Amino acid sequence: MSVDPQKPRKILCVHGVQMGNDADQQQHKEISDLIDSRLGNIPLTFETEMYRYENINDAAQKRYKQLLKLVAQTPAGGIVADKAFDLVADVVTAMLDTSTAAKIRAGLRARILEIFDEGNPCYLVAHSLGTIYAFDVINALMREEGLFLRDSRRTWPLQGLVTLGSPIGLPMFSGSERKKVTKLGPGTKWFRWLNYWDRTDPVVSGNIFGKPVRSFGIAEKYQLADPNQGWVIRDRAVDTGRLWLLAHTAYWSHPIVGDGIVDMITN
Amino acid sequence: MTKWSVWLAVVFLSGCSNFLYQGSLVAPDSQGAQRKAILYWYKTEPLLGAAKAGPASLMTECGATLTFEERPQGLIFRGESGRDRLPGSAQPLADGAECGRIVDAASFVELKEGTVRVKILCEPVAGDEFSVVTRRYLKANDAPYAFEVDAQKRWSLFGAVIPAPSPPECAQR
Question: Who among B43, B135, B161 is closest to A255 (CB)?
């Protein structure tokens, strides 16, 4: 297994906290349009693809949803409770070390390794809760024998990570497996992680009222001064042009985010 | 009455003014060729609450896009070991070292239209087999580059993004 730099770039998108089902997750089309609009006339072939896990979540949460509907007696109350539960349960599923979370991580890992087998340079663009799954899977892959040899990017199943509106700075997601990133060891190549976040995004701040975050670092808490770590981690506070929850959904089509993705996949 | 209350709440919670700032110039890139460079960034002023803005993209014709971020030390482009270096240096750059600076403000919210000066302190390192294009940006220079920046403003009920300037077309690589 080896990555061929001449093959089309594959951008694998991972959605976050969602309502609806797998068929509703089409954010890879937004990323494709975004890259097209920011690429200029750089001669690059690429494909985008979605990793979907909402149906896995929904199947695991079905019996709890039914219980909640019984509790929410009125039809209107049932609808509101159902939507709210869908979102909250997704978060709890990722936060806890559940078999559902393990199934979602295994599916993502398997798809990344399939793309690796096919030889395409692969980049991960993950949103919201999906960034937690992405972080876990990348760090686990880096611990596997024969993958991510520091000075040979051809052994890297993933060439870079872009996270959007990630809650990874919140204490609820700082489990024992997420205290640090996996070191790549000595060498000269760097694994790049760009973390875009809006200051009023409540999923990033953990503040339901969207109180702005004034600090500068979220993902960079993982950055060590030790060059043997092999990661370049950049937090980029981006003004999405929207406020509160609207900011949380605005990253997929933002030009500044697109510029960062293009810079990553062309180098 | 209730309907009006909901509308008022929506207006105050999500209504805002959106700004796009952009300017361009032609100057030598890191390989000495005259190239067009475009600088742009966004700002949002909500009806309620503090304004937010940035980061800025600096796009160079036939080259790379640099990101200037707001950090405690100002508006800077942070270099990466393996991608940037001090001009003529054989030593790898310390990751995160300052490689560029917007000198006219300490935050993007304070940065206005008019002349915006940008210093470039580093040069790009040659890429590897994964590089599709040669990474270039404006030549390192003691004197800052002066961009004449215009602002566009738009009011929006739910927030919006004014279309960004297109990357400069590369006529000759």
Answer: B161
